[in-house]
Design brief:
Blueprint (H helix, E strand, L loop, with lengths): L6 E8 L9 E8 L4 E5 L6 H6 L9 E6 L2 E2 L5 H7 E4 L8 E2 H5 L8 H10 L3 H5 L8 E2 L8 H14 L4 E5 L7 H14 L4 E6 L2 H4 L4 E6 L2 E6 L1 H7 L1 H8 L1
Parallel strand pairs: 3-10, 3-11, 6-9, 9-10
Antiparallel strand pairs: 1-2, 1-4, 4-5, 7-8, 11-12
Helix pairs in contact: 4-6, 9-10
Bound molecules: 2'-deoxyguanosine-5'-triphosphate (DGT) and magnesium ion.
Length: about 240
């Protein structure tokens, strides 16, 4: 069967409600199942805004966002959420057990599936270290766990739903470089058939992506692989050197 999860942005322009100027202009790209698309760019470039348009946190001003050829504006929100899992830049954990937090997108997931997701997200040791395990309580907003642990639990939550598309918004930045590398290697094995879109700060996080979009001031200024961009993109070179 054909893999699902093809994401296409066609000449997308977006303005926040009430704002004068667009924060995204003429964004066009395709992200394919089985591949990783990365988005990099300075703070305020529009990366979070861009990834928020697929799960329809906002609707575009002009252009189209399509999932497997269907405009997301023509899809049920429940269909989008079952097929697209987003790990937000500031992941949100709610008051309840780890298990509750992990089952959020898939209430009927088995314990085995939860542990598998935790292992991939490099969060298994953290959950095992207390005898309460999956029943350990998380405070509202996840204030009793560290930022890196919040990110890893949020990644595990996304994995549990086994979506067609993963959106990781700066999900690896709170991790040390070694954990980041281990996590992404484990993820690769588990997301082979899915479309993976990664927003990143560190070039090392995305150097092996199939395609990298360089976003600046709401526009895609360059695109290519890491090696291509090193040759052709002054903006990318600046990020590498920073
Ligand atoms: P980051 O996470 O600091 O690396 O920055 P990005 O690239 O994720 O930037 P983003 O998409 O959060 O913001 C792009 C622009 O849009 C920036 O000028 C701030 C503005 N913006 C972001 N969120 C909102 C919002 O909710 N309302 C309004 N009016 N503007 C927003
Ligand atoms: Mg952001």
């Amino acid at each position: 069967a054909e893999k699902k999860g093809r994401v296409e942005f066609r000449d997308v322009t977006f303005k926040y409600p009430g704002a004068e100027a667009p924060v995204l202009s003429n964004i066009s790209f395709t992200a394919e199942p089985g591949k990783t698309l990365a988005i990099i760019g300075s703070t305020g470039a529009g990366k979070t805004t861009l990834v928020s348009l697929l799960p329809r946190l906002y609707d575009v001003a002009s252009g189209e966002v399509l999932l497997d050829g269907v405009p997301v504006t023509e899809m049920d929100s429940s269909e989008i959420t079952s097929r697209v899992s987003a790990v937000p830049q500031k992941p949100y954990l709610f008051s309840g057990t780890i298990e509750h937090n992990l089952r959020f997108g898939k209430p009927d997931a088995t314990d085995e599936e939860l542990w598998e997701a935790l292992e991939t997200a490099q969060a298994k040791g953290f959950v095992e270290e207390k005898s309460s395990g999956l029943n350990r309580r998380i405070a509202q907003g996840g204030t009793n766990v560290s930022g890196g642990q919040r990110q890893r639990l949020s990644i595990a939550r996304a994995l549990v739903t086994k979506p067609n598309v993963y959106l990781f918004d700066d999900s690896f930045s709170a991790l040390d470089v070694a954990t980041d590398a281990r996590l992404r290697k484990a993820l690769k094995g588990k997301t082979k058939d899915a479309t993976v879109i990664i927003v990143a700060q560190r070039v090392s996080t995305i150097a092996d992506a199939d395609e990298i979009l360089v976003l600046d001031n709401g526009r895609i200024v360059d695109r290519g692989t890491h090696d291509e961009l090193l040759e052709t993109s002054p903006t990318y070179q600046e990020i590498v050197e920073s």
